[in-house]
Amino acid sequence: MYSDIPGVQILLSLLKQNNIKHLVISPGTRNTPLVHSAECDSFFKCYSIVDERSAAFFALGLSENLDVPVCVTCTAATATCNYMPAIKEAYERNIQLIALTADQNNYSRFHMGDQNINQIDMYTRYVKYSVDVPKIINKDDEWYFNRSVNEALINLNTNGKGPIQINYRMDYSMDYLSYFPEKKLPKTRFIKKYELDDVNWNELYNLIKDKKIVIFCGSDYYSNDDVKKLLLYFQKHTNTVILGDYYSNIIDQNVINPSIIGEVYKDKEINLIKPDLIIIIGSVIYSPIKSNKTLFSSNVESWQISPECKLNDGFRNVKKIFKMTSYDFFKHINDKLNDNDYSDSFYKSWTDIINLVKLPNLKFTNFYIILELIKYIPKNSLVHMSVLNAIRLSNYAKIDKNIKCFANIGADGIDGALSTFLGQASKTNDLCFLIVGDLSYMYDMNALFNSLQSNIRIFVINDYCGSEFHKNFGLLKIPTLNKHTAAKHSTNMKDVSSINNNIKYLSATNEEEFLINIEKFVCKSDKAIVFEIFTDAVDNANKLKEFWNINQSTFRNFKSKIIKKMSNVVSSNTKEKIKRILK
Amino acid sequence: MNELLSLFGNDIDIVISDGLRKKLNKIDFNKFNNITEIEDARSAAFNAFGKSKIENKNVILLIKGDYLSNIYTVCTEAWFQNTNLIVIALYTSIYDVETHYMDRCTVLNLTLFENDLSLFKTKLNNSMVQNGPKIINLVVSKMIETKNDFSKIINTLKTYISSQDYVYLYNDDNKYGLLNCEEISEKYKYGVLSKYLSYTLFNNEIKILVIDDSCFKVDSNIINSRYISDNFKVIIVSNNKDFNISNWIKNNNICYIEGSMDLNKDLKKFYESKKAVVLVIKEVL
User: Fold this and answer.
1) Of the candidates A397, A452, A328, which has an alpha carbon nearest to the alpha carbon of residue B242?
2) How many CB atoms within 10 Å of residue A78?
3) Which residue, of A369, A400, A405, B118, has the fewest CB within 10 Å?
């Protein structure tokens, strides 16, 4: 019989699915639910050793002898400290030891809580990975617990072997700790790791066949087109949509940049474009559509391809992680594909939705000028977008497939865009464009004290504050917004840029000036050029909101129009079915 | 150090921050083909990150260990993007190596002694396989440390200042017989201007800051702040003919004085200025 404490069930289920059966147990109260559940399950091979220091060394010996991961489990507090000598040795000698440390309630630590020390990351530097998982109270806790334990177990033998720590909360009553009502251990989500030699590609092919597939391309940069070619081949032999914001650098007419609908169709389930399977490649995904949980999370499975084996479970449904390059994955799977499997139905559904997007009259706003600028950027250029609007609005534009795109979207900070851009620009003779706002440009202006190449083009949109905050909050909600939150200032970038003698300066305050100077801006020059555009923060914010509002209602009308049209020609049953699809 | 750098080959990109090149006279940097020098460590690190990102290869950042915290943000970004930024942080004492906070945003954080490198070669090579930012803390026997000598300026300035006035000198430990004279050590090079700006708030004592341009270049954007008051009095000494901040300073409503041949006259004007003032003196160091 098993404990019905969800954390204990997840732990045991994942140990079983990872085929980790050896459990060296030291007696205690907090680990009793785990211990009794395990000893009742014939899968586990349990050992009893009282002194935790000896227990951990015993486990170390077992792991070394059998070359398999071995668990040690003990109660809370000083018991866990006794694992340290063996953990340290395991780390130094690459031995797979799993410390399952039961813990008390954090809140009462050092405040009359008995047997309560700080166990979080307590073996730091001597474990390959350490997780502290919560008492499961809601779905978020459950996902976090499951994901973290999966992540820890993946790290046990990825990029070398070594020990890990899983610290889990067991602050339950004595009655509950000794309550074992479950006859069957529920199976929890297991994230299986594959390396190149482990994959049965025929099996994988059977899993993708007939599926509606979304490939999410995260930020990456490939020095040649090989990965893009493989992706497009995959698309032509399956029912696949390739989604990539520009930082994936997989730009093609058959690749959809979903950013433009990301904030329009947020939190709505659109069955027409709902995938059965998601394949994630690259590192960071920018497009806000990723946060549409209903579209990408429920009843969908994700596979992740990551040479670093760095789990990205944002959709909360990764089931497979492939420790290999995207090139290797698609090269192998493409060999199994047949022409007959091709369908463009899913791709068409996506393009139908994207094509619904309408732009309002943009006037002279940052929205307008970024879209216009991008039309003028020559092929083979490099573009770096700084943060927020520079990233958002650039992704609404159509960018030529020969342009290389970058942004610091990992942590998505305001800092460092100019310096990063200058580093990138130093490695090419092609024109390089930075799209940046006033605050971000000033933030990193120390970079201007260095020599600048003549291929540098800096496009600064100056609205004398952080316009993002006018979009997020606005003066109506916070009348003093400009004072601190939006950091209003009166600095012109002409002055800031004057600290470098190798900069030509252009500016525009209206469309006419903009169109005159843009031609000069994108031409060759003997000096770097800063083009400063003055816009109004409130106008910028309102235009963006107008764009979202228009398109949200367009989408609503799209649904009702289709429902109206069909009402005279189909039966009520069919009508209901179509309504569900359009939900 | 030479041995460590040689592991990466002569074509490796190296970005050097904080004028470290001059402090490491044993290193033959000339044999490396791609060297960039950037004063601000944060900016230098982002620059190296950008280079690494576009070329998909290792790029080295050389940084003084004292300033490592300035690149926390860059390592965080590089960690997300699995970028091969290799930070070599230099120390002269093992006791200064305190970099645990970097563990969360690096795939390797290793400490080596200059002479022990061969012991770590295998570990280093194994770790290089994994994509992501890496830190190598290297304890070296010596770095050349030089002090600023602001004697000519301060001895002239003494004609004007009173005993109540405060003088802050960056990296010059001479007190010049002044009652309120304080050195800001090179260890605390970052944020000198920002800190000084807040010293000038809330009272009307005269407080003068004397710095070199390397110190200015790592904290320049604070000049754009709205808190510059009439108490703001900064002297910047520069040996760089391209150091040209006049327009920007003036347009921030700060009185700008370009040093002339007559230091006495310049310092008198500087001291007597009723509004925020920056005096730039070239080539007196």
Assistant:
1) A452
2) 11
3) B118
Q: Scan for tokens 């990551």, then name that residue.
A: A306
Same CATH fold assignment for domains B2-139 and B151-281: yes
What contacts B37, CB < 8 A, 6 or more positions away?
A450, B15, B16, B17, B19, B21
Query: pTM of the predicted model, to two decimals?
Result: 0.91
d(CA B82, CA B89): 20
Chain B: closest CA distance from residue A172 (Å): 31
Provide the shortest C-alpha distance from residue B208 to chain A (in Å): 23
**Which uninterrupted H or E stretch holds A372?**
helix A366-376
Q: Please give the share of chain A, as a percent, with pLDDT higher than 90.
A: 87
- pLDDT tens-digit map of A19-68: 999 999 999 999 999 999 999 999 999 999 999 999 999 999 999 999 99
Residue A406 has phi, psi (to 5 degrees) of -140, 155
User: If you measure CA to CA, which chain A residue comes closest to B105?
Assistant: A411
- Under 8 Å CB pairs connecting chains A and B tally to 154
- The answer to whether the CB of B88 falls within 8 A of the CB of B138 is yes
Q: Tell me which residue of A28, A70, A66 sits closest to A50, measured CA to CA.
A: A28
Residue B140 Cα, gap to closest chain A Cα (Å):
23
Once rounded to an integer, what is the mean pLDDT over residues A353-380?
95
Judge whether B42 is closer than 8 Å to chain A, CB to CB. yes
pLDDT for the residue A292:
86
d(CA A243, CA A256): 5
Closest Cβ opposite residue B77 in set A221, A413, A423: A413
Q: Which tokens hold the place of A512?
A: 């006419």
Q: How many residues does chain A have?
A: 583
Band the pLDDT of A268: cuts 50, 70, 90. low
CATH level 2 (architecture), domain B2-139: 3-Layer(aba) Sandwich (3.40)
Query: Which residues, other chains included, contact A283 with Cβ-Cβ below 8 Å and sequence gap of 6+?
Result: A218, A219, A220, A310, A410, B80, B81, B82
Contact A465, A366 (CB under 8 A): no
Residue spans of the domains in chain B: they are 2-139, 151-281
Cβ neighbors of A569 (< 8 A, separation 6 or more) are: none
d(CA B270, CA A175): 78
At residue A564, does pLDDT exceed 70?
no
Strand blocks (E) in A157-232: 164-169, 192-195, 212-217
Task: Could you please state the CATH topology (level 3) that the domain comprising B151-281 is classified under.
Answer: Rossmann fold (3.40.50)
Which 8-state DSSP code applies to residue A271? G
pLDDT tens per residue across span A211-240: 999 999 999 887 778 999 999 999 999 999
Take residue B237 and report the two structure tokens written for it. 């000494």
- A94-110 tens-digit pLDDT: 999 999 999 999 999 99
Q: Say yes or no to pLDDT of A169 above 50.
A: yes
Band (pLDDT 50/70/90 cuts) for residue B129 is: confident
Contacts of B243 in chain A (CB under 8 A): 449
Using CA atoms, how far apart are residues A288 and B77, in angstroms rounded to an integer?
19
pLDDT, tens digit, for every residue of A325-351? 999 999 999 999 998 999 999 999 999
**B78:A410 CB<8 A:** yes
Instruction: Give percent of chain B above pLDDT 70.
Output: 98
